[in-house]
UniProtKB/TrEMBL annotation:
Residues 193-264, 497-524 form a coiled coil. The keyword Ion transport applies. Keywords: Coiled coil, Ion transport, Membrane, Transmembrane, Transmembrane helix, Transport. GO terms for molecular function: ATPase binding; proton-transporting ATPase activity, rotational mechanism. This is A-type ATP synthase subunit I. PANTHER family: V-TYPE PROTON ATPASE SUBUNIT A (PTHR11629:SF63), VACUOLAR PROTON ATPASES (PTHR11629). Belongs to the V-ATPase 116 kDa subunit family. It comes from Thermofilum adornatum. The keyword Transcription regulation does not apply. It is a multi-pass membrane protein. One of its GO terms (cellular component) is proton-transporting V-type ATPase, V0 domain.
Length: 945
């Protein structure tokens, strides 16, 4: 238990041109909590916007025309805020126009819900007409025998009401088509008149509120010319940060490309010389055999292919790579078939067509196709996966047959003429294609296998002995483990930030280029691969180094993004500007802050600080080192301690683990829980999607709770519900009253501790009277202590109420009454002498809580005994089940149930007792969180350009 670190409030000022130096100094210190800006320069804003910001403008007194005029003066015509405001004003004018229509309709006794409805063969309709057309429209309607009424709704518009029989509908529609404005009216317009008017008023109110919200947004970005400059700076920092974060997402892709390049080097350069290289890099035996079979052109069935690769590829990837393998088999079959051709046997004006495909290719044997295309089958080969046909075809039908084979039967086709030179070229081209597809297939399998098996790149690089890939790997290793951070160079910092944004875009483009080059090189003939491969490797090294450089600035840019909006500017003699920054820093860091400001800011105009007394409001700085950085979560979940409050982290933790152990006492279960906690703490495994920090916190709490469970397991003499380990000190299930007594006395001790802590907190805060006479202070402690003694004597006397009148308890009953009266008296004192009238009612509520809640809180601790007994009851359950399911099964089921269900339930109960019964007596948790603007200076490597 300790108080939060004492903090000091500081203020520093420098000329505006040295703002970056001032900010860099603050960033270097790190443990600084900045206050929000000192205030806006309202004089630069139009008066209306100032009134909007200060809440003096509401929907009832808003002058919409003035608002629109002001917005048009300060915003560009294409500004989104202005366009939004104009849309809202236009919407408001539309509603006001509808409201005028409703008023006119009310004046002539017409309700809008009657429009368009037929009653006794008569229809009431309306239309809006321009002023210049109204006489013509009325004349045509009257001539058609329509009853007409009109009313002016604006200087330019009239509403014309038409009453007509059903058989006049066509004449009315013709006039409406000719003269009606066709304004779209909302559905609520056609409701009863009063309802429609009310809806119109509601719509006007809604739109005006939205206009005010828009004006607030406008005012927020238009403080003055300095605010525009600041917004630009923040935008530059924001864009740089986004660019760095987007570039960071490329690390996994970069690693994938690196792995693919390693695989391609293995496939292209080494595997043909060292057939054992696949085993050397750590691939599994079935995969190695598959790769060698493909490399040596040995047949592998599709079933074998899928079975070997099923654990490496997803279903979608497996289908894709199987198609690639099918293509390889087809090319191999075609190449084999070409070797059987004899050009001298080919008839004049005929060609050979070699087709490779699946089972569908057998359709070519149907007589009607043979007759239609006039081909003759020279040879054919078949296995379970592939069909090869060689046809002799007349030249005039060869094109049609080729199209049929490709389009209908999805076959790969080669056409061979009598030209021997062309035939040799075809064979060479097919051989190159075969080699290219094989390399691509092998590369894909090898690279994916490396990823899946987690083979260390160092092992592969030692085989390849490729310097460029080694350089690339060193950069990628830095990217994965964390790039050392550094500060920004001196000079025009915002220009430098823009260059970083450009560098981020450049790296993304280069990664895309490397990806495209790798895909392209797979199609390049083997004799041309080496040079291209070296160029790709150099590009990979280059882009990796750029990404390392880019990410080395991430911390400082993140810090600038958080700190920049908190800087303030003031104007001196119109043209001179001064940047002012203020905030809080732990007292122990004040000398470091002062020294850093003086050394980094050439013209530090002002620096002052003063220590904040405990009675004042300030951010709460709690230093979290070692295990406390994980355990503090118990406190932060309840709230942030106020600056004057004791930090309850250690006592929260101690009480939690003791209560957990008491309810879950078992050496074996405690050991399992401890091992689970150690695993979570060390690995930070994101169980059920929790954060890594949350996983570490869960791990530490589980480890400590498990140790407490083992201690209580020794006291209870249990281990996995097996034979008791010697005579237990206390057996919950057999000594019910004993374990309940322990639980209750533990609760009493815990609540007394809570009262004492509250008295300490109030004393530190300066409320000495409250510490002594409040219901949660000294008076509450006296009341509770006396109540415990009285309750104990009642219980030990067999609840004989006559004992209450004994002289033995008279002093305690007197203390009980005096404590209640002192709480009420203190409340009256605060109400009368301090003018805080609500304090008296607060005192009354405290008295009620003392009488009702204190006993209830004490009895809540019986749950400690109840869960301890329930835990042991599971052992009896396992014992009884042994006759039905066997001892091993019954004990396994019982232990799994306890670890899975009771382990969680006990944690919830321990948390509840800690948070509700205990912490509510003394812990407010209303403090201000200390939010450092940056990481400490020791974690940033500072460099100069």
């Amino acid at each position: 238990m300790s108080l939060p670190e004492k903090v000091a409030r500081f203020r520093a000022a420098a000329p505006a041109e040295q703002e970056v130096a001032l900010l860099n100094a603050i960033i270097s210190v790190g443990s600084v909590h900045l206050e929000s800006e000192l205030g806006s320069l309202k004089s630069a804003l139009p008066e209306l916007l100032v009134d909007v910001l200060e809440g003096r403008v509401n929907y009832a007194n808003l002058n919409v025309d003035e608002a629109l005029e002001v917005a048009r003066k300060v915003l560009r015509p294409e500004d989104p805020f202005l366009l939004k405001l104009e849309d809202k004003v236009k919407e408001l004018r539309q509603v006001e126009f509808i409201e005028k229509i409703l008023d006119k309709l009310g004046g002539i006794g017409v309700s809008p819900d009657s429009f368009g409805k037929q009653r006794l063969g008569v229809i009431t309709g309306f239309m809006l007409v321009r002023d210049e057309n109204v006489h013509d429209a009325i004349s045509e309607l009257v001539n058609a025998g329509i009853i007409v009424r009109r009313a002016r709704v604006s200087p330019e518009h009239h509403i014309v009401i038409m009453i007509y029989s059903v058989n006049k509908s066509q004449e009315v529609d013709a006039v409406k088509k000719k003269y009606s404005l066709g304004i779209q009216l909302p559905q609520w317009f056609f409701e009863p008149l009063e309802t429609a008017k009310r809806r119109a008023e509601e719509e006007k109110t809604r739109i005006k509120k939205e206009i005010i919200e828009t004006l607030v947004e406008i005012a927020g970005v238009l403080r003055d010319a300095f605010e525009f400059e600041r917004a630009t700076r923040i935008e530059i920092i924001s864009n740089t940060l986004k660019a760095i974060e987007n570039a960071e997402k490329n690390i996994q892709e970069l690693e994938r490309l690196f792995t693919e390049l390693m695989a391609f080097n293995i496939v292209h350069g080494i595997c043909r010389k060292r057939i054992t290289v696949f085993e050397e890099i750590g691939l599994k035996k079935p995969v190695c055999e598959l790769l060698r079979n493909i490399l040596n052109n040995e047949k592998v069935t599709r079933q074998q292919f899928r079975r070997v690769l099923a654990h490496i590829f997803s279903q979608e990837e497996l289908d894709e790579i199987e198609n690639e393998y099918t293509r390889l088999l087809s090319l191999q079959s075609l190449y084999k078939a070409l070797g059987t051709l004899k050009l001298e046997e080919l008839a004049e004006k005929s060609v050979y067509i070699v087709a490779s495909g699946g089972q569908r290719l057998e359709e070519v044997e149907r007589p009607e196709y043979i007759v239609s295309y006039g081909y003759k089958t020279i040879n054919k080969f078949a296995d379970e996966d592939m069909r090869i046909y060689i046809f002799s075809v007349p030249e005039e039908t060869s094109s049609a047959l080729v199209n049929y084979l490709k389009d209908r039967l999805r076959a790969q086709v080669i056409v061979v003429t009598r030209d021997s030179q062309a035939f040799n070229n075809t064979q060479e081209q097919l051989a190159r294609s075969l080699e290219t597809v094989k390399n691509s297939l092998l590369t894909t399998i090898v690279s994916r296998s490396i990823f899946k098996t987690g083979t260390k790149p160092e092992r592969i690089l030692s085989i390849l002995n490729n310097e460029e890939l080694k350089k690339a790997y060193s950069y990628i290793s830095q990217l994965k483990s964390g790039v050392p951070q550094r500060g920004l160079p001196e000079g025009d910092i915002y220009s430098y930030l823009k260059s970083l944004t450009g560098l981020a875009d450049e790296t993304s483009e280069e990664i895309s280029h490397v990806r495209e080059e790798i895909e392209f090189v797979k199609e390049v003939p083997c004799e041309n691969v080496t040079e291209r491969l070296r160029n790709i490797e150099k590009s990979l090294v280059d882009v990796s180094s750029k990404l390392v450089e880019l990410l080395s600035y991430k911390s400082v840019v993140e810090t600038m993004f958080r700190a920049q909006p908190l800087l303030s500017e003031i104007r001196v003699f119109r043209s001179r500007r001064i940047t002012v920054i203020e905030g809080y820093v732990p007292v122990k860091y004040v000398p470091l802050l002062e020294q850093t400001l003086k050394s980094k800011v050439p013209r530090l105009l002002y620096f002052k600080y003063f220590e904040i007394p405990r009675t004042a409001t300030a951010p709460t700085y709690v230093e979290r080192k070692g295990l406390k950085k994980y355990l503090y979560t118990l406190t932060s979940m309840r709230g942030t301690p106020a600056y004057w409050e004791l930090d309850p982290t250690l006592i929260f933790t101690g009480l939690f683990i003791v209560m957990y152990g008491m309810m879950f006492g078992d050496i074996g279960h405690g050991l399992v829980l401890s091992l689970f906690g150690a695993f979570m703490w060390k690995t930070k495994y994101r169980l059920l999607g929790i954060t890594r920090e949350g996983a570490a916190t869960l791990g530490v709490l589980s480890l400590l709770a498990g140790l407490a469970s083992m201690i209580f397991g020794y006291i209870y003499g249990t281990m996995f519900f097996l034979v008791p380990l010697g005579k237990p000190i206390i057996a919950p299930i057999h000594d019910v009253y004993g374990i309940i007594a322990v639980a209750l006395w533990f609760g009493v001790a815990q609540l007394i501790l809570a009262f004492i802590l509250n008295m300490v907190n109030l004393w530190i805060y300066g409320d000495r009277l409250g510490a002594l006479f409040s219901g949660m202070g000294g008076a509450g402690l006296a009341f509770y202590g006396s109540g415990v003694v009285i309750a104990y004597r009642l219980a030990t006397s067999g609840f004989n109420l006559a004992i209450l009148s004994s002289s033995e308890l008279a002093p305690f009953i007197s203390v009980l009454v005096i404590a209640l009266l002192s709480v009420v008296g203190y409340g009256m004192f605060e109400a009368l002498h301090r003018g805080e009238k609500e304090k008296f009612m607060h005192a009354i509520s405290e008295v009620i809580e003392m009488i009702i809640a204190f006993p209830a809180n004490s009895l809540s601790y019986i749950r400690l005994a109840a869960f301890a007994m329930a835990h042991e009851a599971f052992g009896i359950l396992a014992e009884n089940m042994a006759g039905f399911t066997g001892p091993i099964a019954s004990y396994l089921v019982a232990n799994f149930l306890v670890l899975g269900i009771e382990g969680l339930a006990v944690g919830i109960q321990a948390m509840r007792l800690t948070y509700y019964e205990f912490s509510t007596k003394f812990f407010k948790g209303t403090g201000i969180k200390f939010e450092p603007v940056a990481t400490p200076i020791s974690s940033i490597e500072k460099t100069k350009a």
